[in-house]
Amino acid sequence: MRFLCIDTSAGAGVGLVDIDQSVEVLAKEVIADQRRHAEALNELIRRVVKQGSGKELAEAGIETIAVGTGPAPFTGLRAGLVSARVIGEVLDARVLGICSLDVLARQALDQVRDRKVLVATDGKRKEVYAGLYEAAGPDDVTALWGPEVGPAESFFNKSRGEDPFIVGAGAELYPEALPPSAQLADTLDPVVMARIGAARLAREAGGEEVDFSSEPLYLRRPDIHPGVAAKVAAAQKGRLGLLNE
């Protein structure tokens, strides 16, 4: 199965991945700059798909689109979700919403086995988005709680008894409250998102109910006027005219 993976919860990450009996990374690219990642996203998608398949988006054989649902601030997250939904509709590909904290947790668990992981990302307003996780097999995670938003101190106290491994940009920002356990990468890897998506599709095929909602996890009211939200969606749809090129 060929996955196009998109996440704009912090910067922008795009990957083209084939998963059958093994994971084959065709192409991936990550932009860490959070100031212009929404504007750069569609060119990033085009570039990754062309590099990975040798073809344009409409002919690249994409069957499934995995997209990060946050939590994250409004504008950047919305750009990724709109792009995923539009591409999914045009290609008749299924869209799988995956919590971005789940992906960061799985990345950490690939390196820190047999531990629980507390993921904390930058929630702005001197807060963090956080969740506590444990492994669910080699490619997925289970959220013990979260995602939630609040002061870093509150999540340290909440997880104190679990002695978790602490990772994420939020821990780097507030080390006095959430001392990071190691210098692991806090940039989301879109390939790990594909692994989670494939694992959850397998569970669904086995009869388990799996939530693939692509509704965004803002966790608080966005600081944006509804009219601006409509403009963001319209702009992304317009830029995605690349599907017909």
UniProtKB/TrEMBL annotation:
One of its GO terms (biological process) is tRNA threonylcarbamoyladenosine modification. It comes from the Bacteria. Its EC number is 2.3.1.234. One of its GO terms (molecular function) is tRNA N(6)-L-threonylcarbamoyladenine synthase activity. It holds the Pfam family TsaD. Transmembrane segments: none annotated. InterPro entries: ATPase_NBD, Gcp-like_dom, T6A_TsaB. Keywords: Acyltransferase, Transferase. Gene3D superfamilies: 3.30.420.40. This is tRNA (Adenosine(37)-N6)-threonylcarbamoyltransferase complex dimerization subunit type 1 TsaB.
